[in-house]
Design brief:
By secondary structure, this protein is mostly helical. Helices cover about 80% and strands about 0% of the residues. Helix 8 packs antiparallel against helix 13. The mean pLDDT is about 85.
Length: about 375
């Protein structure tokens, strides 16, 4: 009975994170395209996009107090349902200024789903299987991120159809959450600091930061780099597709290994790949096929930084500490999302477009130094 209950809880968390990935990857480009079609300036579109980061940061501080006040399951279900209900409003309300609180609220809610899904799965899974289960979880997130844009291809970006379709997909995630309701965690401990974790955790949280920083900078700037290398716009877009594909393919194998050797070693291996592979990208005159293979491998290793670090975070924390540490993990991920494109863009401006891979390598090099220095703080249970 307990194992069946745990399985339903894990399935509920995975369905929630898949819904998060799907919603983020579909809504982000959809809103930008709709604003552009309505004639808004790039400054206005950038302001609207910036609200996503602001909403995510706010959610990192708000989600746990709300979940403690109203209950974990109620908060998760409420966030999923309100996310779905808010989407048609983007179509029904044409005012740009009305979109500002609406988009901020949407990203508070969708990030809340992200935080609660991670808390649920890290509390539910046994440590001896945590690596591979979080690998499945990371794969589900990557699948959601990869498939979200397909809704725009199927329903277009004009009218209300894409908004209603995304909302319907979000509501589908409610059913697995309801089925797993008896396994939902109980949150009773008071909130702790999000920015200043225990001294044994900075390396793990830096993995979250670097993953998000490189991932967002790659998504924003790699098409420009690809064009600079002489790729066609279509092949530059193909480069973007290879990155999450690598994450889909490597999350489970990395998680399997992380259950059999100290997880800090797996993180160090991923960080070494994060240093070396962009240097090869910079230094070698690679063919398109070789470049795509390198990007796929690099994307898989970068994804491993996130899921294996999440497993290590849970391994070194008590159940009472985990909810706040999970929220800190997401907060540092959000800070990376904000900082990564800015730093990488500054590197391109000062050192030229070809230097972009060296910026990626620099992020990973800093992380590798921290992982090597703090390895003694992380022991396999």
């Amino acid at each position: 009975m307990r194992q069946s209950k745990r399985t339903l809880g894990i399935a509920a968390a995975i369905s929630a994170i898949t819904a998060f990935g799907f919603a983020m990857s579909a809504v982000w480009p959809l809103l930008s395209l709709v604003l552009a079609a309505r004639g808004h300036s790039t400054d206005a579109i950038g302001l609207s996009a910036g609200l996503a980061g602001a909403g995510a940061l706010a959610s990192s501080f708000l989600t746990l107090p709300i979940a403690r006040r109203f209950g974990f399951l109620t908060t998760l279900l409420g966030a999923l349902i309100l996310c779905a209900l808010s989407l048609p409003l983007f179509h029904l309300i044409p005012s740009f200024w009305a979109w500002i609180p609406l988009r901020f609220t949407f990203h508070v809610l969708v990030t809340g789903v992200f935080i609660l899904a991670e808390i649920w799965i890290t509390l539910e899974v046994e440590d001896k299987h945590r690596g591979i289960v979080l690998g499945i979880y990371g794969t589900a997130l990557s699948v959601g991120l990869a498939t979200g844009p397909l809704i725009l291809k199927a329903f277009g970006t004009v009218g209300g159809a894409p908004f209603y379709a995304i909302a319907a997909c979000l509501l589908l995630a409610v059913l697995p959450v309801l089925l797993g309701r008896r396994a939902a965690p109980k949150l009773t401990q008071p909130a702790k600091s999000r920015l200043l974790p225990p001294l044994t955790m900075p390396a793990v949280l830096l993995c979250s930061f670097v993953f998000a920083a490189v991932d967002l900078a790659f998504t924003a700037l790699m098409p420009i780099y690809g064009l600079h290398r002489g790729f066609s716009p279509e092949n530059a877009a193909l480069v973007l597709a290879m990155f999450p594909l690598g994450s889909i393919l490597l999350q489970i194998p990395l998680g399997y290994v992380a259950d059999r050797i100290p997880r800090i070693y797996v993180l160090q291996f991923c960080a070494v790949g994060g240093v070396l592979l962009p240097i090869l990208m910079y230094a070698l005159p690679l063919s398109l096929s070789a470049f795509l293979a390198l990007i796929m491998l690099w994307g898989g290793l970068l994804g491993g930084l996130y899921t294996v670090a999440l497993a290590l975070l849970a391994q070194n924390a008590t159940p009472d500490e985990l909810p706040d540490l999970n929220a800190a993990f997401v907060l540092w991920n959000t800070l990376g999302m904000v900082a990564g494109p800015v730093i990488a863009g500054g590197i391109m401006s000062t050192a030229g477009t070809p230097a972009l891979p060296l910026g990626f390598s620099g992020f990973a090099a800093i992380l590798l130094c921290v992982l090597l220095f703090s390895a003694r703080n992380y022991t396999q249970n």
